[in-house]
TrEMBL record:
<dbReference type="Pfam" id="PF07859">
    <property type="entry name" value="Abhydrolase_3"/>
</dbReference>
<keyword id="KW-0378">Hydrolase</keyword>
<dbReference type="InterPro" id="IPR013094">
    <property type="entry name" value="AB_hydrolase_3"/>
</dbReference>
<dbReference type="InterPro" id="IPR050300">
    <property type="entry name" value="GDXG_lipolytic_enzyme"/>
</dbReference>
<protein>
    <submittedName>
        <fullName>Alpha/beta hydrolase</fullName>
    </submittedName>
</protein>
<feature type="domain" description="Alpha/beta hydrolase fold-3">
    <location>
        <begin position="58"/>
        <end position="260"/>
    </location>
</feature>
<dbReference type="InterPro" id="IPR029058">
    <property type="entry name" value="AB_hydrolase_fold"/>
</dbReference>
<dbReference type="GO" id="GO:0016787">
    <property type="term" value="F:hydrolase activity"/>
</dbReference>
């Protein structure tokens, strides 16, 4: 979601906004959408006409830890459920600065525990669970994967991370040189981490690039954009996963800004979107 001005201004503008009721959102012929009772707000997308227990993934929206809600991923979650023949669970986690770390991460992890516990009722295969997110949502997805490993939580088979924000130190080459990039830049990144952390020191779970041990994490697909200040965070994290023995697939797309915005190249952007969906399907149906 493009941001004009500061994140603080954007937070003030979204004050009091809430997700719309399902009846007010577009319907899809290919999926059933529901909002079952859960410890946190979740919206569940299940493909129609696909029998048997299905794999499932959490879907964690982006927004710099301070913006967005499940409405913003409504269409993307439905497309993912359809393409991957999987149940997609969009999570309405709490946002900073009203709810700084660890609120959003703990909400996301609670959603994972709920998904595993309710797998039977949801028609989900509890042995094939994943996490997916873009930008700050990818940071939360990565944090959930680390928590699941360290807490002995529900086992994950896959993590899908698109243009991930993983490092509060902002000291990579791309973050130092692409300071004024469109869509996302160093100033917004500084503000995002400040609001998210709420004055507390970063940890491996809030800023996963700080994690010293990446062994035992689920296989990953990571995509980065060549003109995104976050580019090198994703590339370096992918390299460290590989060095820790974690299967990882990394794709960097040159010529695009954060979240694959950029010049008017709809055919290329469509190709990237299809590849992301194909990677999700491969990860959940190994």
């Amino acid at each position: 979601m493009p941001i004009s001005g500061t994140l603080t201004d954007a937070v003030a503008d979204r004050a009091g906004t809430r997700p719309q009721p399902l009846a007010a959102l577009p319907e899809f012929d290919s999926v059933d959408v529901s909002e079952p009772a859960a410890p946190v707000h979740v919206r569940v997308y299940r493909p129609r006409g696909v029998a048997g227990p299905l794999p499932a993934t959490l879907w964690l929206h982006g927004g710099g830890f301070v913006l967005g809600n499940v409405d913003h991923v409504h269409q993307a979650a439905a497309q993912a459920a359809t393409y991957a023949s999987a149940v997609v669970v969009a999570v309405g986690y709490r946002l900073a600065p009203e709810h700084p770390y660890p609120a959003g991460l703990e909400d996301s992890y609670a959603a994972l525990e709920w998904l595993a516990a309710e797998a039977g009722a949801l028609g989900v295969d509890a042995g094939r669970l994943g996490v997916a997110g873009a930008s700050s949502g990818a940071a939360l997805a990565t944090g959930v994967a680390l928590l699941a490993r360290d807490r002995g939580g529900p086992p994950l088979v896959f993590q899908h991370l698109a243009t991930p924000a993983l490092d509060d130190r902002l000291d990579t080459a791309s973050m130092r040189t692409l300071t004024d990039a469109p869509i996302w830049n160093r100033g917004l990144a500084l503000e995002s981490w400040r609001l998210y952390l709420g004055g507390e020191a970063a940890s491996a779970y809030s800023a996963p690039a700080r994690a010293e041990d990446l062994s035992g994490l689920p296989p990953a697909y990571i995509s980065t954009a060549g003109l995104d200040p976050l580019r090198d965070e994703g590339i370096l994290y992918a390299l460290r996963l590989a060095q820790a023995g974690v299967p990882v697939e990394l794709h960097n797309y040159p010529g695009f800004y954060h979240a694959f915005g950029g010049p008017d190249r709809p055919a290329e952007q469509q190709r990237i979107a299809v590849e992301h969906l194909a990677a999700l399907k491969r990860g959940l149906w190994p």
